Amino acid sequence: MKKQVIALAIAMLAVGVASAEPYDTLAKIKSSGEVTMGVRDSSGALAYTIGDGKYVGFHTEMARRILGDIQKQLGLPALKIKEQLVTSQNRVPLVQNHTVDLECGSTTNNATRQKDVAFASTTFVEEVRIAVKANSGIASIKDLNNKNVVTTTGTTSVQTLRKNERATGVDFKEIMGKDHADSFLLLESGRADAFVMDGQILAGNIAKSKNPADFKIVGEALSVEPIACMLPKEDPAFKKAVDASIARQIKDGSLAKLYDTWFMQAIPPTNTKLNLAASEATKAAWASPNDKPMEDYAKK
Amino acid sequence: MGNWDWQVFLEDPGGKIPTYWQWLVSAWGWTLAVSLSALVVALVLGSVIGVIRTLPDNPWLVRLGNAWVELFRNVPLLVQIFLWYHVIPKMFPVMASLPPFILVVFALGFFTSSRIAEQLRSGIQALPKGQRYAGMAMGFTTPQYYRYVILPMAYRIIIPPLTSESMNIFKNSSVAFAVSIPEMIQFAMQAGEETSRVTEMYAAVTVLYIISAMVINRIMAWVEKRVRVPGFVVAGGTGGH
After folding, report:
1. Measured between alpha carbons, how far is A183 from A154 in angstroms, rounded to an integer?
2. Of B151, B188, B149, B150, nearest to B31 (Cα)?
3. How many helices (H) does chain A have, and how many strands (E)?
4. pTM to 2 decimals?
5. Which B positions 61-90 lie with beta carbon below 8 A of chain A?
6. pLDDT at res. A169
7. Residue B96's closest chain A neighbor by CA?
8. Which of A178, A193, A196, A233 to mutate to test the interface with B (most CBs of B within 10 A)?
9. How many CB atoms are closer than 10 A to CB A68?
10. Closest residue of A to B4, CA-based?
11. Fewer CB under 10 Å: which end of chain B, C or N?
12. Residue A178: its pLDDT value, please?
């Protein structure tokens, strides 16, 4: 029995020791000729799937362009891009253990995550909003008293919601969906009265739903969050290459064009328009690229 | 040990619950509530189904019991949870008003009941046929000889697998997170995300799962010892009579 306890303790220690050490992603890409990018299946127009293992979206396309620039920089004749589906719960560990080299989805850049991973320049600034059924009569967070409110497990929105609950004194019942699609299903099936999440994820889920007109996004922005590509910590050369590509895409206007494609034009699979123009905060992030965490935005 | 940070449990998650450790305790409560309620459902249903599968001269009841076992043990538990949560309320609108807790208890309880039914059936069939005939020769009715002769022996025989099943139900309750029950796995995922202290959160949750399962294990071991019939099942031996 004692031996088993010691073995268990050693195993747990070994897990604890795996931490950030210098790493060279570029060398790994160069020697193997392949790179793994993290993709999401339901992160709104930022990153989603249209089925058949095809992943698209503003950040997914941007990531492909970043990797294209890196291929050029490394002088590789060919670069095999592997796509790894990640979820809100496993994305940070997968980047930490280098299963995924670059994750461009809907990850909020915040101070706690910066302890584990690094972030590229912010390319999208998200506002946390409330989605409700169009006929629900809910117009702001005050109307959520005694209502069922769903958010997705493993996202920062859950904490945002809780903090708002404490600040406003509104008492609601919190439900946590397994993923965004599950959370939206809870709203759709009436188990939840409101879905609190990043505005564009809400817009994306609504646009993809059977009857988009049944839903609307209401209320004030509950928090403002910079969204950025996530990459391994302690790898300055890789971060520099990614940031340089983002700066290039901003400078030659291709990023703004890409934004227009995904947020203003009709997008697959249902050919609906999100009509979500770039916010002032997003434009500001493009004007002066930075990797400031969410906490720095709140201080303003 | 430089990477551990247990003080994270004293931090404030920013909601109704003041610290993470208190939130963990509440999550543990949900895990225990789901598991123990499901265990009750599983024991009661499993006993009924297990008995009717061994009834003589009742082929339709036996078939019903067999169908029950095959239905609930052949569908993955996670699928059963989703069926109870998303599909059944659509088919029977009455069910839509039931809280998710009840639906999860049904799913977990029914799933486990099929396994307990199978164990009880094999326990009853492991008894020598003579026991049944002896009961009948005494003039007992079927319910009477089950109650006074067969079941007391069958339950004693199946206590070891029943112990595994009771421990399993605690571990299986972790799927409840998929339908928004705020139990320990959901806590670990969410708190790990908020604090970036995933290892500590899962370590704490693992310890609580071990404690919960071990307590049930000890209770069952105590029951096994208390109800042992001297000379019937050889303790620590190779079994037999």
Report:
1. 12
2. B188
3. 12, 15
4. 0.76
5. 86
6. 83
7. A191
8. A178
9. 13
10. A16
11. N
12. 87
Which residues have a Cβ under 8 Å from the Cβ of A247 and sit 6 or more positions away?
A121, A289
Judged by CB atoms closer than 8 Å, whether chains meet at B177 and A12 is answered as no
Residue type, A32: S
Query: Measured between CB atoms, which of B15, B186, B192 is closest to A165?
Result: B15
The DSSP bridge pattern shows strands A230-232 and A117-119 to be antiparallel
DSSP string, B81-136: HHIIIIIHHHHSGGGGGS-HHHHHHHHHHHHHHHHHHHHHHHHHHHS-HHHHHHHH
What's the pLDDT tens digit per position in A63-112?
Answer: 999 999 999 999 999 999 999 999 887 898 899 999 999 999 989 898 88
Q: Which of B5, B87, B183, B194 to substitute to test the interface with A, most A CBs within 10 Å?
A: B194
Q: Identify the three-state secondary structure at position A57.
A: coil
Q: What is the ipTM of this complex?
A: 0.75
pLDDT tens-place string over residues B181-223:
999 999 998 898 788 788 899 999 999 999 999 999 999 999 9
Q: What is the largest CA-CA distance in chain B?
A: 73
Rounded-to-integer distance, Cα B29 and Cα B21, Å: 12
